[in-house]
Amino acid sequence: MKIVAWNVNSLKVRLPQLLDFLATRLPDVVCLQETKLTDENFPVAEIEAAGYHVAYSGQKTYNGVAILSRAPLSDVVTGIANFNDELKRVIAATIEGVRIVCVYCPNGQSLDSDKYAYKLAWFDALIAWLKDELTRHPKLAVLGDYNIAPDDRDVHDPAMWVDGILVSDAERARFQGLLALGLQDSFRLFDQPEKIFSWWDYRMLGFRRNQGLRIDHILLTQPLAQACISSTVDREMRKLERPSDHAPVVAEINLAV
DNA sequence: ATGGCGCCACATTGGCGA
User: Which end of chain A is more exposed for a tag (fewer CB within 10 A), N or C?
Assistant: First the structure.
């Protein structure tokens, strides 16, 4: 099972790239973030024509998440249980016995912003919810844009970013809180080259200079982690005309094991 | 040099992302 997380930064703009991605990479599951589409505007027909089932939860202008799958989806849930949030950031579904949780975690804006306090509270709610979900779903994957670079290896210039948004101690503590639930960062299951990132600023020739951050992650419970055979970033998508500022992150899991 | 780019909408400028 090849599973993908990709922040598309507007599905309306990126739909042709998504359809090309589906046709060429042949993923089994794709979790999208920042679709920026209301549900009535979601391109269901185009995605179904490409051979995928789809579940989605969106809103105008901001946020919006979706799960695409070759196999049927069941038990679709949106949002975090017991956490009131009008922002469409979470959708979950079961696919071939694997619980897939698609997340678009808050950005936080800056450390002195109300949005930062919301980000930390949001992660606390996510952790509490997943702790409960894990009691029912031994095979569970959490994929998406976490807006956290877990450690300095995930930052192009740690000195420049020190104590800033996306790398602050409190944010990294939330990421560790997810790992403490028994989830594993699939990327770090393998020896990886240095300076692998999943997001690059549109400005300042960020991608060409590889001035990026690794903030998009695929976390796996132990039964999936031990069956995981690769975890990579699809940088080619960032090289296209009118790219998203995020590249897809990809993990392959051998469910036969 | 806190700007820059890209997307969206109560649009031709401002909010937001990261």
Answer: C
